[in-house]
Amino acid sequence: TPPAESVREHGVIQPIIVTRADSGRPFRIVAGERRWRAARAAGLRTIPALIRESSPQELLEIALVENVQRADLSVLEEAGAYRQLIEEFGLTQAEVARRVGKSRVAVTNTLRILDAPDEIKAALLDKRITEGHARALLGLDLAAEQVAALQIVIADVSMSLDNDRGLSVRQTEQLVRDWHAGARPTARRPQPPAPEVRQLEDRFRRALGTKVELQHRQRGGGRIVIHYYSDEELDGLFERIVGEDEPA
User: Fold this and answer.
1) DSSP string, 7-60
2) Tens digit of pLDDT for each residue in 55-108?
3) 18, 49, 86 from 33: Cα distances, Å
4) Among the listed residues 14, 21, 121, the one whose alpha carbon sits nearest the alpha carbon of residue 69
5) How far, rounded to the nearest angstrom, does the alpha carbon of residue 200 sit from its chain's CA centroid?
6) Catalytic residue numbers?
7) How far apart are alpha carbons 81 and 75 in whole angstroms?
């Protein structure tokens, strides 16, 4: 959602799209409700709008395309919207790409994610892997192979303490190439944390009120992973750790 401060300063640059309502209010919003809400929060009384007289199916298509262009849409939600545009509205992949302002190849690659095994989709939703990882894993022929390779990627991400990014997309692509060549590495089994590490995690959890993981190297060093599950929880953690006042 555009921040109210930005809308207050610059106004609503892109018009919202409305259509005449059957009853009650004279118009209903087809596309741009988030811009309208930001304008209301900024105290604006008027914003630019386009009136569209279209069939219900055309209006639904407009709303769907608007939804796809949201920045916070997950790749699975985006792929589902593309498939809906293709199956329910009869659009080709090229037509979908033109409507949402992306290349046909980008639309095709995103649609492929819907054919991934459930385990890969779940890893995407949990942000354990990226869309690039998922596309690389889909280069394997069988779903069972894709899931087995996923376990290697996830294990390496969780165990790779020297690199915050873990196994990169390029390394995952190399893993798939090696797999095709007959080399099938196995996932490293994470070692359970030592009792003293578990005790430290528990103390962190009690102090911060959320899950905390200590990833400790045998040779010393490591990293602390603090989990949060909402923006409000992040704000609370920031206040506990950093404090509210900015340094002078």
Assistant:
1) HHHH---SPEEEEE-SSSSSEEEEE-HHHHHHHHHTT-S---EEE----HHHHH
2) 666 666 666 766 666 656 788 888 888 888 888 778 899 988 888 788 999 999
3) 10, 11, 24
4) 14
5) 31
6) 33
7) 10
